[in-house]
Amino acid sequence: MFRNFRKNVFGKIKKYKSYVILMIIFMLLIYSAYEYYNKYFYMFKDPDKIKHIIMSYGKYSILAFFILQIIQVVAFFIPGEIVQIAGGYIYGTLGGSIISLLGITTGSMIVFGISHSLGKPLIDKVVSNKDANFFKRILNLGHINFMVFLLYLIPGIPKDVLAYICGVSNVTFKNFIIYSTLGRVPGIFISAYFGAKIDSGNKAVLIFIAVIMTMLFSIGVFKGEALVKKIIKHSSSKNK
């Protein structure tokens, strides 16, 4: 009896080997990010502290920042905006934007792949019902590629959670990467520009950018869904 039980268990493990490996990798990534977050929690509130940690890696600092951007996408509880601002603060507007975009895109590819492979059981564990229902409702409005672009473009929307949802939606991997990346570009650039100006001493510019970013973020949080629906409705009526 024990032999049959063991045979069945090992048979199932072998059958779902790829899923088991993906789950282990995912859990290791989340655990590593959680430990890193707890250890360096203080730095995620201050770009200057992020800069100190990143630059401590010397010639590997760019790689360290690239990996940090991947981690903040996979472990979406890490505030991505602060990391993006830090990118501009450390590497300038252009350099910070490019490294951030590459790291974030790589992280999004990993999240989409894991979510697509493991399916709904993973979504139920890592995404709240509120977020899951919100994004499913939006993505079901139609024009899914355009919807992905809009959701990533509008500030204040939890974009890294969205990557998990897209993995179990009808959007293809290729289209997800293209439209999500295009949608992220303006936000990443603005954050990097703000970070690059921290040391400029021009408080007026910093305050102006901060006010604009806060306004856009607030619009996204409180009016994001209504805005998306209005755009889709207008687009549909134009095509008739």
UniProtKB/TrEMBL annotation:
<protein>
    <recommendedName>
        <fullName>TVP38/TMEM64 family membrane protein</fullName>
    </recommendedName>
</protein>
<feature type="transmembrane region" description="Helical">
    <location>
        <begin position="20"/>
        <end position="37"/>
    </location>
</feature>
<dbReference type="InterPro" id="IPR015414">
    <property type="entry name" value="TMEM64"/>
</dbReference>
<feature type="transmembrane region" description="Helical">
    <location>
        <begin position="90"/>
        <end position="114"/>
    </location>
</feature>
<dbReference type="Pfam" id="PF09335">
    <property type="entry name" value="VTT_dom"/>
</dbReference>
<feature type="domain" description="VTT">
    <location>
        <begin position="78"/>
        <end position="196"/>
    </location>
</feature>
<feature type="transmembrane region" description="Helical">
    <location>
        <begin position="202"/>
        <end position="222"/>
    </location>
</feature>
<keyword id="KW-1003">Cell membrane</keyword>
<keyword id="KW-0812">Transmembrane</keyword>
<feature type="transmembrane region" description="Helical">
    <location>
        <begin position="57"/>
        <end position="78"/>
    </location>
</feature>
<keyword id="KW-1133">Transmembrane helix</keyword>
<dbReference type="InterPro" id="IPR032816">
    <property type="entry name" value="VTT_dom"/>
</dbReference>
<dbReference type="GO" id="GO:0005886">
    <property type="term" value="C:plasma membrane"/>
</dbReference>
<keyword id="KW-0472">Membrane</keyword>
<comment type="similarity">
    <text>Belongs to the TVP38/TMEM64 family.</text>
</comment>
